[in-house]
Amino acid sequence: MSVASADKRIRIFDTTLRDGEQAPGCSMTLSEKLRVAKALSELNVDIIEAGFPAASPGDFDSVKAIADRNYGPVICGLARCNTADIEKVHAAVKGAERHRIHVFVATSAIHREYKLKMAKEEIIRSAVGAIKMARELCDDVEFSPEDASRTELSYLAEVVSAAIEAGATTVNIPDTVGYTVPAEFDHLFRYLKEHVARIDEIILSVHCHNDLGMAVANSLAAVGAGARQIECTINGIGERAGNCSLEEAVMAVKTRAEFFGLETGIDTTRLYPTSRLVSNITGMHPPRNKAIVGENAFSHEAGIHQHGMLQHASTYEIMRPEDVGLTKSNLVLGKHSGRHAFRDRVSELGFELDDFETNRAFQEFKKLADKKKDVYDGDIESIIMNVGSATSGPWTLESLEVQTHTDEPATVTVNLIGEDSVKASESAIGDGPIAAAFLALEKATGVELVLKNFELHSASIGEDAQGEVTVTVEIEGQSFRGRGASVDIVEAGCRACLEVMNRTLRRRARGDSIVGGVHSEHATI
Ligand code: KIV
Ligand code: ZN
Prior knowledge:
The chain is an alpha/beta fold. It has 3 domains: 7-282, Aldolase class I (TIM Barrel, Alpha-Beta Barrel); 327-389; 395-510, Alpha-isopropylmalate synthase LeuA, regulatory domain (Double Stranded RNA Binding Domain, 2-Layer Sandwich). It is built from 18 helices and 15 strands. The protein has an 8-stranded parallel barrel with strand order 1-2-3-4-5-6-7-8, surrounded by 8 helices. Mean pLDDT is 90; it is low at 515-525. It binds 3-methyl-2-oxobutanoic acid and zinc ion. The site of 3-methyl-2-oxobutanoic acid (KIV) has 10 residues, from strand 5 and strand 6.
């Protein structure tokens, strides 16, 4: 079966910075969001949903900052069906040459009765009013009937018709709670195609959540039935079990081009670097067996597979690693590798560093190569992430002494060096080395925090692999994330903790306070 529609181009609408960022543990600072937005534009997504400007002043500022950078893709912001939300989105996105206002209201019986307490007609009136208002501000308006997949089909068709009449240029059908299955979603899209007048004049879009593990399959079913925009996120991050994974949907369309007869504009060689960027920033690392970007996605262990691969790669490989941006070999560098080899490897891994960043990264590489024999791609990526997010002081970790013994508390001494070579040295005792080290850092810097989460990820292979630590801590009731890497995991944890402490001290020096509200720290850090 091949899709019968004149429009062969699928628009990729990336919502990593809105639906993805909304997920617990995935919030990003302003500078992190800018890095992701730039990477998404290099990936060549069509639309970036940059946030929900009415959610908080920090969200507004980050959507505006992304729009003002004008990276290339259409910049979109989400709004409920009310004047204040719509005006906020417009004010935030209008700096981008191409921008979009995305309005939504729930339509299912469950949401009508329990959440909105609104009748069917009221919801249609609200949607129509909001779409008309958005169209006065912007030519590009998307409408989403939230929980569409659990909405009565005939009512959904009525809502979609009214949205098109009101001027929506894209109508998105969300499976908000990840409830549908491919055959049912196929039927829903075909029903709308058949029962909604003028539906061919707009772009029909699909937005799936992954609660039953079918977000990608459901999105592809919708595409088979006429959807021409997929809403998705890098690594599938998002509320609960996540959203449709961008890399999986895109590679399915590309790898099975003869089946779908469709294409996206994505530069697939940017998939892997973009995935790594998002996982390093959020600390949410895809499982090793994750399709497309998992560490095992292209490795063949079984002897019979390896034998087949040696005869001809197509025996067991349906995609080439280089097509998703994974370089062929996990080439190893070491302490004798020069700047030239290092720079080449960095660019093969898909990173673009300026001279200053290259110098810093090379210095870090040399330090690491002194500590461990083989430096793998994962180590290099980790160095680059740290150089990219590296913050200046006031404090740098000079050295660390750790004493542990089973059945006894741990003792850690941290030696910090500050601005003007001031030194601070503190010791603390804790249940384990991390607790003791964090306590010592608190004493040395004067920043008190509560550790909420500590994630450890191995950057490469072998027992001397670098540990990448992501900590989530609470300072004055607000949540912050910090990252650090080292071959010593206590040191990696200290670096991650110190990163947050330094940001706090810099913010205090500027006289900024932490403002309440969802992600409001983003505007100030
Ligand atoms: O899942 C959902 O319904 C949404 C809408 C706001 C599009 O994210
Ligand atoms: Zn969603």
